[in-house]
Amino acid sequence: MNIQLDDLSSKQVLALLQEHLDDMQATSPPESKHALDLDGLKHPSVKFWCLWDSTTLAGFAAYKQLDNKHAELKSMRTSANYKNQGIATRLLTHIISDAKANGYTRISLETGSMAYFKPARALYQKHGFEYCSPFSDYAEDPNSKFMTLSL
């Protein structure tokens, strides 16, 4: 398996992204949905990574530059056939390493407060993320949890 930067053009990536966006639509109220769509993920401030198992997409993750020292973790997703195989951990540790290598001193995230997002919150806590106040353009929202990690 290998992790590589991606341009979001392959059918596998687009299909998994659509699955991700559909799930976010189904689990979060519109005013609390912060997942980036295709255009958002193609923005120059975003680095989008895919984990490939030969020619099969196992998952993706992205981060967005907020400023020269602060990045935001965005849009993590594991393909259904790769759930519970450490894909999210591999992607998260890769993102953290890349952010450090690029001079960021903090990486933050917004995730849902609902039960659906509990495994994601546990993963982030396992890797040292702590709950924090809203950052960047976010505001307090009962449907959101905010977390940050000093790098």
Automatic annotation (TrEMBL):
InterPro entries per record: Acyl_CoA_acyltransferase (IPR016181), Bact_Acetyltransf (IPR050832), GNAT_dom (IPR000182)
Pfam families: Acetyltransf_1
Molecular-function annotations in GO: acyltransferase activity, transferring groups other than amino-acyl groups
Transmembrane segments: none
Keyword line: Acyltransferase, Transferase
Gene3D superfamilies listed in its UniProt record: 3.40.630.30
Protein's UniProt name: GNAT family N-acetyltransferase
Organism field: Thalassotalea euphylliae
